[in-house]
Design a protein that fits this description.
With about 500 residues, the chain is of the alpha+beta class. Helix content is about 30%, strand content about 25%. The strands form 5 sheets. Strands 4, 5, 6, 7, 8 and 13 form a 6-stranded antiparallel sheet that branches. Strand 14, helix 4 and strand 15 form a beta-alpha-beta unit. The chain is globular. It starts with a strand and ends with a strand.
């Protein structure tokens, strides 16, 4: 059974997608950091970079957004569905100039120090269709595998689009979403009418607002989940806010009437995320180590360039031989990795270091299990076969910050390095600093440090400290500073 659990706070809305009681995905939206993906802006080109074949566009955000030449509609080719079909890439200076005003859509939220990624190939989603005003062809979701159904849907949209032209409907391309499987012509016609009106509204507003303004915002998190997730077999949506329930119910009644009964209010005494163990899952998703049922574990390291996943047998010693132990651990790891990528929202380049296997059939089965675990992932994934070093290289489309980047910040003690100096290392640094103060005129030296460092300095009667005091001819006094980290200290001339 698949459920969506929604927790509404004063400044943050969180949602969890669970399958059979196991959390698969976490969604978080904060008032201070609203999602921009799919929203439309009227932007102004501030800078054109021919060396990068790109332009920077001001959309009213803190950082200028990035627009690559491949994402710019060519005036002579506005009927193309996707820029990828264009055989040659033109000079960006022939398409945009500083000061130009463009209607753009965000395809990637700002991540780290990078601004948002933009496109001028606008797409407007409804429940069953995605409208491409500057497209021409009709596509069907690859997750609809029945060829007869694919042909039926494509024929319906083709007929409706041709019939609509007599009513002054605008031309454009369409993509039939997974949710459209089995729907009637009347339902698709309603979606097409809605999308046509929405596009006309977008054009009117784009002509009215100044550059740097929002033209059309995508739905908030709760309504977006109803639009995108209910078609994926969700049996119940549980929300802990009566006000939010009312808004979700009104949206469902207008656009998804058959699903309105599935939206329920949670009235329990315990917080909804506590009751279903989601708070614990979020905490575990911020840790490096992921334990496997067999006793093995994964170590997940996220860096700016890529994410690495190391598979280890840990406490699992197997029963037959090393090859079988490695194979069983890798199979379990492949299943867990698919869930962890979704749960942590990891994207970009991902390198997986499975335990070495010598049997080709075992390697193929582990790759097949990894592909199966990624099948339910809405983000686009691409797996490369095992490299000669035994590594699996893959990519996962990244459109927003990972869970760790959203909820955490670099450690102030280690400045994001992920480690701190040992007490012994800091003691040696203190000794060197004391020697630097040898010639300063003072009666004594005061050393301020963390408790563990002071304990180390006093260890075994502190012969080193006694020798230093004799060498500089002054007493050395130690003082614990509870607010200092292990690698922080001061040597003060008293």
């Amino acid at each position: 059974m698949t459920e969506i659990l929604v927790n509404v706070g004063p400044r943050e809305t969180r949602a969890a997608l669970t399958e059979a009681g196991i959390v698969q995905e976490i969604f978080i939206e904060r008032g201070s950091r609203r999602r921009r993906v799919s929203s439309l802006y009227k932007g102004r080109v501030t800078r054109v970079l021919p060396g990068m074949q790109a332009a920077f566009v001001d959309i009213g955000a803190e950082r200028t957004a990035f627009l690559h030449v491949a994402d710019i509609v060519r005036p002579a080719l506005e009927e193309a569905e996707l820029p990828a079909v264009i055989p040659e890439e033109p000079d960006v200076r022939s398409l945009v100039s500083p000061g130009d005003e463009l209607l753009v859509q965000v395809i990637k939220d700002p991540i780290g120090s990078k601004g948002a990624r933009l496109t001028t190939f606008i797409t407007l989603p409804a429940r069953f269709l995605v409208y491409m005003p500057r497209g021409d062809s009709i596509g069907v979701s690859v997750k609809i595998e029945d060829e007869a159904e694919r042909a039926r849907l494509k024929a319906l949209v083709t007929t409706l689009r041709e019939a609509g032209s007599a009513h002054a409907q605008r031309p454009g391309g369409y993509i039939l979403r997974t949710a459209s499987q089995g729907v009637t012509a009347e339902t698709l016609s309603q979606d097409m009418t809605y999308l046509d009106k929405l596009w006309q509204h977008v054009q009117r507003r784009a002509a009215e607002v100044p550059p740097g303004s929002l033209v059309h915002a995508d739905l908030p998190l709760t309504l977006r989940l109803l639009r995108d997730e209910l078609s994926r077999g969700v049996s119940r949506v549980l929300v802990d806010s009566a006000e939010e329930l009312e808004r979700m119910a009104a949206f469902a009644a207008e656009f998804i009437p058959e699903a309105a009964a599935r939206i329920e209010l949670y009235t329990g005494a315990r917080p909804i995320f506590d009751l279903h163990g989601i708070e614990d899952e979020i905490s575990r998703a911020l840790e490096r180590r992921v334990m496997l049922r067999s006793g093995g574990h994964l170590v997940i390291e996220q860096t700016e360039a890529m994410t690495t996943i190391d598979v280890n047998t840990g406490g699992y010693v197997g029963h037959r031989n090393l090859e079988e132990t490695s194979y069983r651990t890798n199979l379990e790891a492949a299943e867990a990795i698919g869930r962890q990528l979704r749960l942590r929202n990891l994207g970009g380049i991902i390198i997986i270091d499975f335990i070495d296997m010598h049997t080709d059939s075992h390697r193929r089965q582990v790759l097949a299990e990894l592909e199966r675990s990624l099948a339910a992932d809405r983000a686009q994934c691409r797996i490369v076969n095992l490299s000669p070093l035994g590594l699996v290289e893959m990519t996962r489309k990244r459109t927003r910050d990972s869970l760790a980047h959203l909820l955490c910040e670099p450690c102030p003690a280690c400045e994001g390095r992920g480690f701190v100096k040992t007490a012994e290392t800091v003691c040696n640094e203190i000794y060197r600093e004391i020697l630097r103060q040898e010639r300063s005129p003072s009666r004594e030296l005061l050393v301020l440090a963390h408790q563990s460092v002071v304990d180390r300095l006093l260890e075994a009667g502190s012969p080193t400290l006694t020798t230093l005091q004799g060498g500089i001819g002054r007493p050395i006094r130690l003082q614990v500073e509870t607010l200092y980290g292990v690698d922080q200290f001061d040597v003060v001339v008293a």
